[in-house]
Every structure is written in C-alpha cells, then in structure tokens.
Amino acid sequence: MFNIQEELKKLPDSPGVYIMHDDKDTVIYVGKAKSLTKRVHQYFQASHDEGIKKARMVEQIARFEYIITDSEMEALVLENNLIKEHRPKYNTMLRDDKTYPYIKVTVQEKYPRVFSTRTVRKDRNRYFGPFTSAYAVRDTIELIQKLYHIRTCNRKFPESFGRERPCLNYHMKQCMGICRGCVSEEEYDVNVKEALSFLSGNHSEVLNMLTEKMQAASEKLDFEKAAEYRDLIESVKKCTEKQKVTAGDGEDRDIIAVSSDGEDAVTQVFFVRSGRLIGRDHFFMNVREDDDLPGLISAFLMQFYSGTPVIPRELFLQEDIEDKELIEEWLSEKRGSRVYLITPKKGTKEKLVELAEKNASLVLSQDKEKIKKEEGRTIGAMKEIAGLLNIPGISRLEAYDISNTSGYQSVGSMVVFEKGKPLRSDYRKFRLKTVEGPNDYKSMYEVLSRRFTHGMREKEEDVESSFTRFPDVIMMDGGKGQVNIAKKVLSELKLDIPVCGMVKDDHHRTRGLYYNNEEIPIDTRSEGFKLITRLQDEAHRFAIEYHKSLRGKNQVHSFLDDIKGIGSARRKELMKAFDSAEDMKAATVEELAAVPGMNQRAAESVYEYLHRAENKEEN
Q1: 292-296, 495-499, 582-586: which has the minimum mean pLDDT?
Q2: What's the pLDDT score for residue 507?
Q3: CATH topology for 253-367?
Q4: CB 385 within 8 A of CB 531
Q5: Separation CA 540–CA 440 (nearest Å)
C-alpha cells in the first residue's frame, strides 16, 4: 500500500515533474518543480494554503509518482506533454487544439510552388500565416496565380519537362507553362520574388504597377485588358482591407488576452504579421475556482504554442506571468531565435491588448452556452469515443461505404470527420476498377488499398494532400468482416492504424462498436453515439449521391455512342431522322447514308451494329 508520508521522505531535491493519482489510479494533476521535495511537500502541509482547487485535489490523492529531469526547462516541456496526454481533472486545459492554414512557397525547389498547408516544417521554405479562414487562403493563392502565374502543381522539374500536357491553369493564363519550357528558371524566379514580397505585405508596389498597366491599356484603347487590370486592382484592395494596419513597425506578434468568469475562460488572440492584423481567434478553457489570470495565461502559452508551428518574435500579454523567463527560453528554443513576452503599459500597444480583452469578454458573455453545447456535440463526442476505445488523442476519423445496383456501377466513398465535424474538403470518391458484381468485401478492399497506397506514394514524394493525412481511427460500416478487410489492407501496407466497426442491429440501426475482437456497447443517448450515427449517415449519403450521378450519366448514354465513327453530331441527326431504334434498324444502308452528316462508311457501321445479333443467330 502506498504510504504518502513515507514516500515524501524519498523525494529528491531535483527539478522534475510530479503526477498525482486518485484511488482509481486516474491521473488528476500534473505539475513541475524546481525542487521536487520542496514543492510536493507543500501540498501536504496544513499551514500551506494552496487554494480551494488544490485543497479538493489533495483530498483525492491516493498516490503520486515523479520523473526527474536535468533542468527546469525539461520539466516545463514534460509537464505540458503529460497534461496533453492525460488531460487531468485539476489542470487548466484548452478545450480544443486548433490548426490553421498557412501559405507555403517552396523556395527550396526549382520553379517553386505555392499552396495551402496546415503543416509547417523546418525545411527552409517560406510560410505565411496563420490564416484563420481557409477561404482567405484560397482567395490569396488565386490572386497570386493571377498576378505572378506561380504554379500549384506537384510536378518535379526539370524531370517533368515535356512529359505531360499543360494543365488548365496554363490555358487560363495563371501559370507560365514551365512544363512546356515556356519560361527560364531566372524569369520564373523574378515572379517568385515579387510574389514573396506581396505575401510579406508590400501591396502598394503592386497597386502602382497595375494602375500604370491599366492606364497604358486604356490609352491604347485595349479596354478588355484594362478591365482585367481593374479587376486585379480590386482583388488586391480587397486582400489589403482584410489586413488592417495595427502598427507601423512591421513586426510579427501575437496579442493575447484572457477573460474569466470563475467557471470558464476565453483567450482571444490577434495574429499580427508584418504589422498587419491578418486574423484573430478565441479559445475556451476549463477553469477551477482559484485560477488567476497569470496562471491562465501561462497555461495557454504552453498548450497553444506547443502545437503551433509558427511563433512570432513578440507576444503581448495583459499581465506579467510567474514563469516569464522560463517560458521565454522555451519559446525561443522552439522558434530558433529570441522571443519576447511583453506586457505593454501605455500607448497603442496597450490599447491593442485592451481590445483583445474586450473581444474575449464579449465571446465569454454572448457565446459561452452555445459554444459549450457545440463542443459537446463535436470535441466532447470525440473524447467519448476515444474513452470507449481507450485511444488517447483521437482527432481524425475516416469512414467508408460502398454503393451499387445489383453490383452494377459500384462506387466507394470516403468521408472525414475532424474534431467532430465533417471535413468535406477531404472527402473522396472511388469508381471501382477491379470488382465485378455485388461483392462489398472485395470492393472495400480495393477502396482502402487505393486510398492508403495513394497516400503513401504522395508522402514519399513529399506532396501534401488529403491523402497524406492518415486517420487516427478507421470506422468501418459493419462488424467483424468489414474490420478484418481493413486490417488485411493495413497489414499488407505495413500501416498501424486502429480499425473500429460500427455494428448495426436487425433494424439497420447502430447498436455498438466492434474493436479488438469484442463488441463495445454505447449509450444511444450520448453525444458519442450521435456522432457515430452522423458519420455513418454521411458516408452512406456521399456514396449514394456519387452512384446516382453515375447512373444519371449512364441513363443518357445511347447505343449510338458505342458505334465507331458516330459522334455527337451524327447521333443527333440520326435521332432526328428516325423515331425509334426499331425504325433505324429497319432502314437500309442507303437510307442511313442519306441522313445529314452521314457517309457510306458510317452508315455501314450503324447497319452492322444493329444487325449484329441476327448475324450471330444465323451463324
């Protein structure tokens, strides 16, 4: 049996992390210490006031353990990792981890590309963001293409010169035609440098250049070209308007403020890049009775910036925090250069922090209940599923379904839920190639094989797409049979991804989950159950819609389309000339040749096709 007083005597006078467990061996608190023996002893001293939250926690401690580290910095990092893993009841927690889109320019490769990504790597390429809106990223990339004709394709040059036909962007004059050898590397690099300057916020030069070109086109009476430049000017202005100037120094910084009502807290972050406010976002946090603002700010900094790839040079805070120097050192190490935690006391900078605080208070007062309810439906439901499966940190689920009509025109669907919400941009359709007839197992085998083979290939090629993002759990629409098909595919591809079946009852309603060779019951009134139902329904809907669209295309297919030499024009004329296929079959070769657009050879092809069955019977 664990004797707390005896174990306290064994604590070393070293930096490290301590982990508190309750009588069910659940982790209820994780903390760091410069000296483990001094810090942990404090919890059990009657004279030491730790506050209401800690007093309640101490009552529940059945045992503790500790991990020694070489420095206080290591303890800080380990504490944060353990908090994220165990999500202890008495630690202050962010209620969700958000990822943001960035714009990436691959300056480390020949003929650089520009595209959207949510993964920022230390690969010496250029990243711009974060953007809080995927639409803003898309609009900005489209504008970059129109202005500078930077490619977005995944081709590798010079290896791919002349191998494939130019893409649609080339024909739309949004790409310089690298694949056709239309531009030298030096010419292309000039455009890339201008695009980088634009993404860095230098918009005035672009506006001046476009205005000059518009005026020159007007003077030459080339009004169509002038209108193109006018539209581009409007697009640039629209992009500029979204980025309100907040400071004249051109710095990168995040402005952070917290508002708390004692039960919940909202942290508001303004993202300022090159002196411009490019976006803002808010985060709900779980709060205990005696959490103060400095403690909430510290918890937010550690949890948010441990998962955020880009850290600006300056972070403006509304109050000074206890571990300021330590957290500055940690952030600087992650960034690769000095990071400053600043608490502005006057002027414009202080007003920016006050503005962030007002926005946090507004969200807390107006949206608290709505957001908590939505979090229950999404993030809370994901946590519930993670608990049922005993898989920590589930964020991305993928579900699959097969649709066909008696085995005809079989298709597969892949739907993705991320953090409890449909991620429709990552949905994918599969038209089956190797399976004939109604065989759901073989169909699912083909779909999963194609999905993960495609993803592995693109990972090897360092291509970023929805296929390269693998799920935390694969959710199969069915029980043991469907789960085993998925496991077979993963085994063959040497992938380790958990697979869970969504088991249905005799009335085709979900009754439980099939995982690790056993059926796990699930409360049909819970948010987790409702999320699983939404996932199943969405996979089914997406597959059926795709199948219907293919059926619709097939229904307008004419037998004339299968005859060599008969195109759309001849087909239309033949259908005008004859009321039915029987009338066409009764016609002679000469009568068919007399139809407008037809000739002797085409007429013979139609005649032979229509009388092929009779010829087979005679033979």
Answers
A1: 582-586
A2: 66
A3: Nucleotidyltransferase; domain 5 (3.30.420)
A4: yes
A5: 13
